[in-house]
């Protein structure tokens, strides 16, 4: 079949047949393996959700216990990876640190056996277990501290917050963080998942797959938006400044971070849940001066851009929750990555089951039959200011 038309960004072009998650952008519906995100956020846990996404069904009690125990057992990272991370410049972005250390796992677990279910399961457990440890460790080391070792008495979400502060987290805060991980775990054919699939399709190792996806998630148009939202709210500074700030963005065609989506043309259902989590946190830990600004931003953007289907997405309120949990803003996207490892691994497994290497085509718009000009006869090119 010869599809010749070039579609920028492959918009609305299916890249896979998948049963992992489903989004209805008009109705604002998100389902993981057919279960509505609101149900999973309210009744489930992140590791239960990760199991559902990766193995296709909710685990039994004993399956979940074994999965959780496996992950607790594999949380530590090799001292050579820690030593490597100690060489990272403090000024580097934590997403670059995470991409580097995720790829480094491939050096230590080099045996590849993609047709071996035990190898697949081990890789899933190692990546889910070690990515949070690496995010927390690089954060400690950039502050000149030794990494805080995982606390095997704490569950997944609580352990991460512990490795960030060395304090056992408040149960409500740990629960809210766990829900944030569930909300960010998977989202059909987003850019970083597509990266993961393309990398997976060459049959490389799962650590390279996750490293590839981390690099893609880091961009401000994708996972990097949550950090930019907080920067925007700080720049706006007051409720009174919201309207002129947003009007200025629109006039200058600057994208407003945390808004718009390739699929959702209504408010992202995850943004609704994150907003209520933020309100729960503010009730307990006190008001947040940026929340009033955020509410005004959402109101003005909806007024000005709602007719174009531009509404708050998952990144708009997540930063306010993380900030209240004491997470530095440049770690917001690494938190997104910790959660999305579940979705990337689910698509990695799904791709391997029906693999065909991704190799799209192009519409060639260049020249043909051009002469080779000897170097002494080449005039300074006026093209592109070279
Ligand atoms: C995530 O794909 C996923 O599922 C991603 C994600 C996931 O879970 O994996 O949901 C996570 O990445 C959420 C998105 C986070 N990014 C941001 O918040 C950055 C700001 N958003 C935009 O960059 C944009 O909305 C995108 C990238 C998210 C989607 O862009 P599209 O679908 O390519 O839309 P577009 O850029 O072609 O814009 C269409 C129109 C344009 O106006 P016109 O030129 O037609 O007049 O809408 C405008 C755009 O200018 N527009 C915006 C806007 N987003 C789109 N205008 C102002 N602010 C915005 N945020």
What is the CATH first-level class name of the largest domain? Mainly Alpha
Biggest pleated sheet: 3 strands, antiparallel
What is the number of beta strands? 3
Task: Output the radius of gyration.
Answer: 22 Å
Provide mean pLDDT, rounded. Answer: 95
Share in β-strands = under 5%
Poorly predicted parts = none
Global morphology: globular
CATH topology title of the largest domain: Citrate Synthase, domain 1
Query: Roughly how many Å apart are the termini?
Result: 40 Å
CATH homologous superfamily assignment of the largest domain: Citrate Synthase, domain 1
**Helix-strand category:** mainly alpha
Q: What share of residues is helical?
A: 55-70%
> Order of SSEs, N→C?
EEEHHHHHHHHHHHHHHHH
Strand order of the largest sheet: 1-2-3
